[in-house]
Amino acid sequence: MNPDDVFSDFGDIEAFSRVCRIDSIAASAAGRVVAEVRWPVSSGARLKSSLWELDPHGEKRARRITFSEEGERAPRFCADGSLIFVSRRHGGAGEGEPRQTSLWRLPEHGEAHRLAGFAGDLTVHGIAEDGTVLASTSVLVGSNLDNDATRRKERRESERSTILHTGMPIRHYDRELGEACPHLVLVRPDGGVVDLTPDVDAIALVGVTADISPDGRRVVTTWKERLTGAATRANLMLIDTHTLEQTPYLSCADGADFTAPVFSPSGARLAVTRTTRPTPTDPQYAFLEIRTLDGDADAVVADVGDMTVKEYTWQAEENLLATGDLHSSGAVISIDSANGRSVAIVTGGVFASLATTAGEDVFALRNSLLAPSEPVRLRHPDLPFALPAPGRIGALPGRLERVEVEVDGTRVGGWLCTPNSATISHPAPAMLWVHGGPHSSYNAWGWRWNPWLAVARGYAVLMPDPAMSTGYGHSGLKRGWPRRPDVVYRECEALFDQVIRRDEIDHTRTAMLGGSFGGFMANWIAGQTDRFDAIVSHASLWALDQQHRTTDLATDKMRAHGHEADNADWYRAFSPNVNLSRVVTPMLITHGNQDYRVPVSESLRMWWDLVSSWDGPPETMPHRFLQMTNENHAIVRPSNTKTWIQVVLAFCDQHVLGAGPISEELVS
To answer: What phi, psi does 664 have (nearest 5°)?
Structure first.
């Protein structure tokens, strides 16, 4: 991997799949910056990561500092300038034993050494000033840290895969719950390990977010409890790191969860997110709050305007930095911890992985539809500048334009990508992409849903942010609730109709594509209109009465939409399978077998319905089903991502441009 390579050939999907990408950055108090860089291994089966030193002044090339075959991830700096990271590199388990996931420390000068290893996976949550690391791992139910590796080996060798469930939830995104139990652990600077939660049940720390106070004396963590009706609630718990005493800190009885707690530099305050639960009249709303650890003072609720907050970090005791979606883009804001008022630091991109130094410097990853995540230094609102790093993108095959239309008195915006080749004499066929969520935004680079791959093929791509999109305040989230596809489509169609009136776009050749909620929209649209020449539906919902009970988010779905017998009109109007007989557009269905967010049973049932209802010769049926047996809700393996992109574009080429059918060589 050459850090100076610049990619620009978007017609080469194979080369695109090999471009390296930056996942996170960390900054030391003294100003060192390290990035986690990932790239596909030669087989394309997975992404491998390593750590790279970046020049904070933007003058020198990036320099790779870790080199193991297993890779390194999750960099974090200690107060003394040493670097913590996670790896399964040599030095974990004993001879003949499976490699352990281990925590490593790399001093500023010298070689890395292993601190501690675990049989389960490892996530770092925080580091105290003395170098004590707070992390989470997992042990088999009924095990402890001492015997976990032995019991895992016995379970593997006996090929047991049984789980006895005692309640909900039983799945989370792409993982089974109940076999292993998440634990919080402390790893001391000398490598000593303390299990902070030795008696925890299998549910309390699922999806845990936690932090350790700067003095290392307290840990604050989410703590999930089961409620009646298959519901759960996420509270906050304080744990004394010396006595292991657990003290409930925040619990919300009015239908809300607390997540993502972060200690202030003094340890006296907490930034935390309070999220309401969806109801038939309102979606989830998130509130960023600043609370004191001691005392009865009311929470300071941050005024973030229309921004949907995604992450935050303290720059000083007086101000909290936050990032999130804003108006089909993003921003970084600074929040006064005393009164919650905010001011924009920088806009014009989606920012993540905020990292501060002891001075005034702030580093982040900036992402947009024009370029993937790149490390930047934020000096003042108008001039974040990029640091040299691997994975640079060169010239794009088209131009990006912000477009808007008024629908029912609301301005609906989105992004239009138009090929450089589009002219009045050679207008471009058009694609309408509808994003997932529905609480999401088309504002960032995608390694699978990447419009420039279609643009290089000659398509114009419209990516709207319709009703329920993030970055438009709570009113934007509520518009179109509860998940009204008719409202979303009316807004998307109005914007699509406006852009395809352009002379350089061919309104007679069109396709519609969407994934997750966007896939649900694809299925619903297919039963409403024949205006598109092709429809692509990924990880989609087909029969809502079935999906709402089988998703890992079943409690929220049933709370918001109710039983079909009690809400018959909504299910009849919006469940796509109701209009099967009206589906005439060729459809490509794609789905991962290990998807628990939208179980593959949705696509299996849809495929049966489409195939069994086709009354022509079997060889003339236009629909196709791309099944990925080792993928989840997303598609994470580079080899599968490449195949997905090739098949999707080939399907659209066939039905929109009149090209030949999909070659079986693409998937063989």
So the answer is: -65, -20
Asked if the structure places residue 162 within a domain, the reply is no
Q: Model-level pTM? A: 0.96
pLDDT digits (tens, 9 = 90+) for 97-150: 667 999 999 998 999 999 999 999 999 999 999 999 999 999 999 999 999 999
What is the span of the domain harbouring residue 622? 398-666
Span 14-23, average pLDDT: 95
413 within some domain: yes
Distance separating alpha carbons of residues 225 and 26, to the nearest angstrom:
33
**DSSP track, 529-559:** ----SEEEEES----HHHHHHHSTTHHHHHH
* Domains of the chain: total: 1
Question: What are the strands of the beta sheet with 123-127, ordered from one edge?
Answer: 123-127, 133-140, 180-187, 193-195
Classify residue 42 by its DSSP letter: T
Query: What is the tens place of the pLDDT at every residue in 426-480?
Result: 999 999 999 999 999 999 999 999 999 999 999 999 999 999 999 999 999 999 9
| Total H helices, total E strands in the chain | 11, 40
Distance CA 492, CA 480 (A): 12
Tell me the angle at which helices 517-526 and 485-499 cross, rounded to the nearest 10 degrees.
Answer: 80
Q: How far apart are CA 135 and CA 186, in angstroms?
A: 6
515 located within any domain = yes
Radius of gyration of the chain (CA): 25
Q: What is the mean pLDDT of residues 489-496?
A: 98
> Rounded CA gap, 133 and 79, in Å?
12
Tokens of 277: 């639960």
Instruction: Give CA–CA dist 439/483, Å, rounded.
Output: 10
CA 400 vs. chain centroid, Å, equals 23
Sign of dihedral through CA atoms 380, 381, 383, 389? positive
Output the domain CATH number for residue 633.
3.40.50.1820
Backbone angles phi, psi at 240, to 5 degrees: -75, 120
Q: What are the residues whose beta carbons fall under 8 Å from the beta carbon of 54, sequence distance 6 or more?
A: 25, 33, 34, 35, 62, 375, 387, 388, 389
Query: Please, what is the Cα angle at 46 between 391 and 50, to 5 degrees?
Result: 50
